[in-house]
Design a protein that fits this description.
The protein is of the alpha/beta class and about 400 residues long. The chain folds into 3 domains: about 5-100, N-terminal domain of TfIIb; about 135-180, no CATH class; about 185-375, Dimethylsulfoxide Reductase, domain 2. About 40% of the residues lie in helices and about 15% in strands. It is globular. The chain binds iron/sulfur cluster (SF4). Iron/sulfur cluster binds near residues 90 and 92.
């Protein structure tokens, strides 16, 4: 339990430099001082009711505790028992309770009464809304055009997602769906599905020696952001791990990197391909990469030998030189070559990526090139690389 005396004592130690704590000791000290799932009203001094919940403001769904004061949610904090987030929420999660009492929150169905864009609406009952929707859906289905019904949604709970995608829409007869992923993540997710199967990515930051980042701002936002950013921070500070970022802007992650390369928007694929070319040309695929290639289908022949796979890859990648990539991306060829060699020569390395690289018209192929670089260097399902990289027909 933290209290004023302990807080001041810790502050005094730090201020006078009387004791130097390692990163791990400082974290352990913080853990000891942390209040475990308790909160008090600063007005009345009474203990607030704590309700375990989960933040639903993004796909990470971090474990949380909502605190009620007089029946109102006044604060949301990380669930201190959560191993994944270690009791933390991001800034958006901590502000989540403001949505509940947002005066603009729509709580009842609204029917548009004017022209689209006129902003004229009339509140209607749930019965009226459901009857109207049912009638429109019935007409489409009876006309043999159920696919003209598109379901669009934002972040919703996993159970609601399953109900809509696996029960309602297939039974109605449409697969036309749009969600928030369409705007940002779909290219990366589909690239993973085509390459590895249906699986979200994750990385063994604790055991990695080199991190290559294509367009992920993991320090501020990424799926599972809270846990990922904490783990990455610990790795950078405790293990002095190298982080190289390719991004069009100086994000907080780029700012915490050893080197930030500002490339032209949408050109990450050229750099990833050029790095693959360097790896194949300079035979940096040897050992770890070779072992992994045994399991990869590189040519149309599923029985191709390792030598045939290597020859096919070298021929395919030959034209994608660092000089070619420099013309497209603006990143100097010498730097692309140097980073490729350093990355491939590090025994345990991982590549992270996100919207900066993949939310473009060529995002799917960009992500496939990035995953090829990870595969050619053997950094899949290895310590320090991409964890559980290959899915086994798992339903998500
Ligand atoms: S990362 Fe932030 S917004 Fe997403 S679930 Fe966790 S706390 Fe909520």
């Amino acid at each position: 339990m933290i209290n004023r005396r302990k807080f001041l004592k810790l502050g005094a130690i730090t201020a006078t430099g009387a004791t130097t704590l390692t990163g791990a000791e400082a974290r352990a000290e913080t853990e000891k001082l942390k209040q475990a799932g308790q909160d008090f009203s600063y007005l009345s001094g009474t203990k607030r009711d704590a309700v375990p919940t989960a933040c639903a403001l993004c796909a990470s769904r971090c474990a949380a505790v909502a605190y009620l004061d007089g029946g109102y949610v006044v604060k949301v904090e990380g669930q201190p028992e959560s191993k994944r987030t270690q009791g933390r929420l991001c800034a958006k999660g901590q502000a989540g309770h403001t949505q509940v009492y947002d005066p603009d929150r729509i709580l009842k169905p609204m029917r548009r009464t004017g022209k689209r864009g006129d902003g004229q609406w009339q509140q209607i009952s749930w019965d009226d809304a459901l009857n109207e929707l049912t009638e429109r859906l019935r007409k489409l289905r009876e006309a043999g055009e159920p696919e003209k019904f598109m379901f669009h949604h934002g972040w919703i709970s996993a159970s609601a997602n399953a109900l809509i995608n696996k029960v309602f829409l297939p039974n109605y007869g449409t697969a036309t769906i749009a969600d928030n992923s369409c705007l940002g993540q779909s290219a990366r997710i589909v690239a993973h599905e085509l390459t590895w199967g249906n699986h979200a990515d994750n990385w063994d930051f604790e055991n990695t020696g080199y991190i290559l980042n294509f367009g992920s701002n993991v320090m501020e936002a990424h799926t599972n952001h809270v846990a990922m950013s904490r783990r990455l921070s610990h790795t950078l500070t405790d293990h002095n791990t190298t982080l190289i970022t390719f991004d069009v802007r100086l994000s907080n992650t780029a700012a915490k990197s050893n080197v930030w390369y500002q490339l032209k928007p949408g050109t990450d694929a050229a750099i990833a391909l050029a790095m693959c070319q360097v790896v194949m040309q300079e035979e940096l695929y040897r050992f770890q990469g070779e072992q992994f290639l045994e399991f990869c289908q590189v040519t149309p022949d599923p029985n191709a030998t390792l030598a045939e796979k290597v020859a096919a890859l070298q021929a395919h990648l030959a034209e994608y030189t660092p000089e070619w990539a420099e013309q497209i991306s603006g990143v100097p060829a010498a730097d692309i070559r140097q980073v490729a060699v350093a990355f491939a020569s590090t025994n345990r390395a991982c590549i992270i990526s996100s919207r900066g690289a993949t939310a473009h018209f060529n995002g799917l192929d960009t992500e496939r090139a990035i995953q090829m670089l990870a595969a050619l260097t053997g950094n899949i399902d290895n310590p320090g690389g991409r964890c559980i990289g290959v899915a086994l027909n798992r339903e998500n």
